[in-house]
Amino acid sequence: xxxxxxxxxxxxxxxxxxxxxxxxxxxxxxxxxxxxxxxxxxxxxxxxxxxxxxxxxxxxxxxxxxxxxxxxxxxxxxxxxxxxxxxxxxxxxxxxxxxxxxxxxxxxxxxxxxxxxxxxxxxxxxxxxxxxxxxxxxxxxxxxxxxxxxxxxxxxxxxxxxxxxxxxxxxxxxxxxxxxxxxxxxxxxxxxxxxxxxxxxxxxxxxxxxxxxxxxxxxxxxxxxxxxxxxxxxxxxxxxxxxxxxxxxxxxxxxxxxxxxxxxxxxxxxxxxxxxxxxxxxxxxxxxxxxxxxxxxxxxxxx
Length: 303
Description:
Blueprint: H1 2-21, E1 46-50, E2 55-63, E3 67-72, E4 76-81, E5 85-90, H2 93-100, E6 126-130, E7 134-139, E8 144-150, E9 157-168, E10 171-181, E11 189-201, E12 205-218, E13 225-239, E14 244-255, E15 258-270, E16 274-279, E17 282-285, E18 288-290, E19 296-302
């Protein structure tokens, strides 16, 4: 009975930890040129090009036939006479986001599984499609992101909260928490993982040291099965070219009487709007290598 209990919680904890942490997207860019009927869509962003080549991007607030009032991204509200305008066209939101994002921001706030001290700008949301399931992260402020992840069968469901801050140009820190349950499969089986991260370097070249404490339990068992362990991670990223980065991710924890370490080297290819990544997962239990033939695949998409 004791062996069965240990075996059961060992399997549940290992699977739970993997999902808790795990826990192509290219759009065609289109511009719709406006007709000369002065019908502007509210809360849409436009590109206004003047006859002299000057360009403004912003929301058109009013048009009296002689001039338009534009709330530009850089200069604020601005009146532009209609006779000075060469063209007005709708701008794709992703084009604006790409223009505002540093070219070096290659989804740099994430490695394969773990995160780091880099922040996301407010409104810089992204979708990450893992081979195991989807994840979404919303940047509600320049320093706070909230999100969630699950598997393709909706189990588990994990929510995340992260705060990050820049201390110097080459030193960033982050702190957050993940929490969730096996949802429809077993709502009483749940866990939580608070963590902290310190990142050295910049968006192109960096290394991160993270630590946390994971606790999982199954209240449906009598007595309640539970396990807790410290968790550590070392991860890094090196930009190899304009559209390629080399990434190494890892995490380790103690599972009952065994030490588990997962290492994932791989590459990320794409841009600051869309990216694809592939990694090779290596699992070590008490220094014994366990083959994991499924690659760690992922697709990033900003929105």
